Amino acid sequence: MKKIKVLLIGFILMIILTGCSFEGLNISDYEYHPKQKSLIYSSDQQLIGEVYNENRTYTELDKIPKDLQKAIIAVEDSRFYSHHGFDPIRIVKSALVNLKEGELEQGGSTITQQVAKNLFLTHEKTFSRKIKEIIYAIQLEHKYSKHKILEIYLNEIYLGQNTYGVQEASRKYFHKNVWELSLGESALIAGLPQAPSAYDPTKHFDRAKNRQEIVLDRMVATGNITPEQANKAKQEKIIIADGVDHQITEKYPEENQHFVRQVVNQLTNYIADNMENQEELSKEELKKRAEYQLQTGGYKIYTTLDTSIQEQAIDAIRNGIVSNGLGESANGALVSIEPSTGKVVAYYGGKTDIDMGKQPRQPGSTIKPLYYAGAMNEQLMDSNTLILDEPTEFPGGYKPKNYGGKYMGYATTREALVHSLNNASVKVMQSLGIKNTMEYLKEYGIDTLTKEDYHLATALGGMSKGITPLDMANAYSIFANDGVYKEAYFIEKVEDMRGNIVYSKKEQQLNTRQVLSENTAKEIQDILTDVVNRGMGKSARLSYYTAGKTGTSNDNKDLWFVGFVKPLATSVWLGNEKNFSLQGGSGISARIYQNYMSNVIKKGLISTNDLEKVTTYDDTIKISILLPDKNINQMEEITEEDITDIVIPAGEISYFKDQIVEKVEIDKKTGKKFVEDHCPEENKEIKIYPEGQSPKEECDDPHIFDKFKNLAPWHNQEKSQGKDKISA
């Protein structure tokens, strides 16, 4: 006992003598702010991700069970309510052990000292750090109540499995909130601080159970519970939760990881860009500080993602890859944007860590509508303008080929896009001009262009980098939104711990601009509806009219479909990060879109008020017209070389009324309309007339009489006699 008293007096004198020598230990101006993880929510208020340095959810002491509070005090600091920051008796006992061992083995730290260490110090085992810890603890006791110190401790303490604080530990090990814990469960958590890894109940349950019983015995010894309560708690069946707690998700859940990272990167860059930089830190250092602020600031981040639509997107991609036998190497991305706002409501970047939603890929023919719309917007053509689709050599020796080597001759702009005619499409881009085409692509929000893209091969998707699925969905949104570009965005608002809005669409400075006239947007939408109805995109057909375009890069390395209805524009991409070829064509992507959108509509996830039910997929007719360079007023006669057959929607026939011709059988002797069985067969001739200008009068009576005369018996008899005479 005398030895203990001497050590105690010596230790107190050491604190008094050395306390003044530690400068900068005054915390009178310090205010505690818990390091809280930031939470990311979907538009339908689902928790979709967390950002943290220490996985913590701060919980007020009043919500923490008394049993858990008592258990912690019993096992960690039984004299917590009687000491003033440090416990001399406990320190001396620890000192005796340390002297015996010859090194600092036991710390004898009170709860207040542990709080001081967690807030202000490192975890190094030195006597100087221990003195600082005591000095800080004394100051904390002057600054805060016991109630507050215990609350801080229960929220700051590390409890294993990357969890900090009793609420996260409760969720991790029991999938319960802390206020729902039983006495037995509370005692098990109270036993973890001493050695969180060694007592981890998911790996070492027997150790954790033994430690729990020690805690319960300590609670009996300190008078917090009765022996009967302790025995009952020891007999309680403790069930440790398996797997992931779906209410409090992992840091980056697989299905939302790329969306969450987009959000985190955007906010990190914003915080870094707006930080004061008096220390002249590098961009990398500023970004690290911004990341830490986001990880510990307890922000609530509200995003645009709709988890119900996201679920359909993920299922459509995964099931589509499997059902079409694309193999393990295949990957896919799907992005859906609300055209009227720019909200990204679904975003799946694929099955790997690489976010394919933001990776530029060769767009194939999905780029065609973008410059077709540009040419129409410049009034260089409309949907009925004729283009000659034939093998062509363009400047620089560029010789594109149509798919399958087939050419249509003259076709309307509509049919050239419906059937994705390569040569005709290059002519459309040529008419718009390479430079103007690039300017339009920029207006669509595409920022992956390079100087190497300034050539006609871009018309068929031959680009240096390509276009991302996100940008492609955003570009097609313009067609669905009356020609107006709304920049895609992920974040609605961010609130700090006090509920103040610190980031919103205003800070994002989102771009809105009129890229196409409303008429052009409607016209290209009508053409792209035909692409799905009767063209290359048939596999994307829905019960409502939908518009879209397929696209395939060389060797089937990229399979695309980009489609839209009024409330939703979607890009579907299939491929591989290593550019392996896939077995199959872009029809697979179109089928994925069809499956995805059918479920979205069936489940009522978007409004169908602005959608039109399909009544017919094909309302086209074939007509014959004069070639564009022919003038009927300067022609004496129309020949086969002067006309061409084209396919048009029936409703567009009035556009060609002055060019339509008709082929008519006439009687060449009289110039009258030939009527079968009424005119001599040898007089039949096909002539071409402008529509409505062919002969109306039919063969006249003499011709009919001649027909009958040939059938008369005496006529045949005369012919027979004539033959006999000749024979003779």
TrEMBL record:
Species the sequence originates in: Garciella nitratireducens DSM 15102
Family: In the C-terminal section; belongs to the transpeptidase family. In the N-terminal section; belongs to the glycosyltransferase 51 family.
Entry's Gene Ontology cellular component terms: outer membrane-bounded periplasmic space; plasma membrane
Subcellular location: Cell membrane
Pfam families in alphabetical order: Transgly (PF00912), Transpeptidase (PF00905)
Membrane topology label: Single-pass type II membrane protein
Domain Penicillin-binding protein transpeptidase, residue spans: 332-597
Gene Ontology molecular function: penicillin binding; peptidoglycan glycosyltransferase activity; serine-type D-Ala-D-Ala carboxypeptidase activity
Catalyzed chemical reaction(s): Preferential cleavage: (Ac)2-L-Lys-D-Ala-|-D-Ala. Also transpeptidation of peptidyl-alanyl moieties that are N-acyl substituents of D-alanine; [GlcNAc-(1->4)-Mur2Ac(oyl-L-Ala-gamma-D-Glu-L-Lys-D-Ala-D-Ala)](n)-di-trans,octa-cis-undecaprenyl diphosphate + beta-D-GlcNAc-(1->4)-Mur2Ac(oyl-L-Ala-gamma-D-Glu-L-Lys-D-Ala-D-Ala)-di-trans,octa-cis-undecaprenyl diphosphate = [GlcNAc-(1->4)-Mur2Ac(oyl-L-Ala-gamma-D-Glu-L-Lys-D-Ala-D-Ala)](n+1)-di-trans,octa-cis-undecaprenyl diphosphate + di-trans,octa-cis-undecaprenyl diphosphate + H(+)
This protein's pathway: Glycan biosynthesis; Cell wall biogenesis; peptidoglycan biosynthesis
Record's protein name: Penicillin-binding protein 1A
PANTHER family per record: BINDING PROTEIN TRANSPEPTIDASE, PUTATIVE-RELATED (PTHR32282), PENICILLIN-BINDING PROTEIN 1B (PTHR32282:SF11)
A single BP term in Gene Ontology: proteolysis
